[in-house]
Amino acid sequence: MPNTVTYKLFFEKVRDSISEGTFAKLTLAKTIGNTQLMNIYIRTNTDEIQLKLALTFKFQTGEEVKIMPIEDGFNELIPYLNNPFLSAILFTTNGDVMMKLNKKRVANITNQPATFKNADPILLEYLSNR
């Protein structure tokens, strides 16, 4: 898979934001062409024992939610990068991290000022109870 190093770096930033309690959400967007799957929104979830990811697949006709362990969630998302999504945006309270694929499908990461002032409330509650 091309971009493996960039993908690993991006998902390491996601892991860091979760462990530091700054994660607000993750979004896969900017599809190639007219696809049924429009976006994937990722937030944290918990089963009282383990922190997990809630992946919301937004289709033109509705939504589907999958809840899974964090690493399984990352493995679920990676195949959607480059097909059909060209961008992944990590929203944290420290700043937004955007990974975009260009026309040649080469990924690069940029940083922007934070969009969210507060981290994901489920994540904060989970971290405070540990």
3D architecture notes:
The protein has 130 residues and is an alpha+beta fold. Helix content is 25%, strand content 43%. The chain contains three helices and seven strands, in the order αββββαβββα. The chain has a seven-stranded antiparallel β-sheet. Strand 1 (23-31) and strand 2 form a beta hairpin. The radius of gyration is 14 Å and the shape is globular. The mean pLDDT is 93.
Anisotropy-based shape: globular
Largest sheet: 7 strands, antiparallel
- Helical content, roughly? 25-40%
Q: Uncertain runs with pLDDT below 50, 5 residues or more?
A: none
The amount of beta strand, in percent, is 35-45%
Q: Gap between N and C termini, in Å? A: 37 Å
Q: Gyration radius, to the nearest Å?
A: 14 Å
Number of strands: 7
Mean pLDDT over the full residue set: 93
Order of SSEs, N→C? HEEEEHEEEH
State the secondary-structure class. Answer: alpha+beta
Widest beta sheet: strand line-up:
4-3-2-1-5-6-7
What is the helix tally? 3
Quick structural summary:
The chain is of the alpha+beta class. The chain is 25% helix and 43% strand. A hairpin with a 5-residue loop joins strand 6 and strand 7.
Q: Descriptors for this entry?
A:
single chain; 130 residues; alpha+beta
Topology, element by element:
Blueprint: H1 4-20, E1 23-31, E2 37-46, E3 51-59, E4 62-69, H2 70-77, E5 85-92, E6 96-101, E7 107-112, H3 121-128
Antiparallel strand pairs: 1-2, 1-5, 2-3, 3-4, 5-6, 6-7
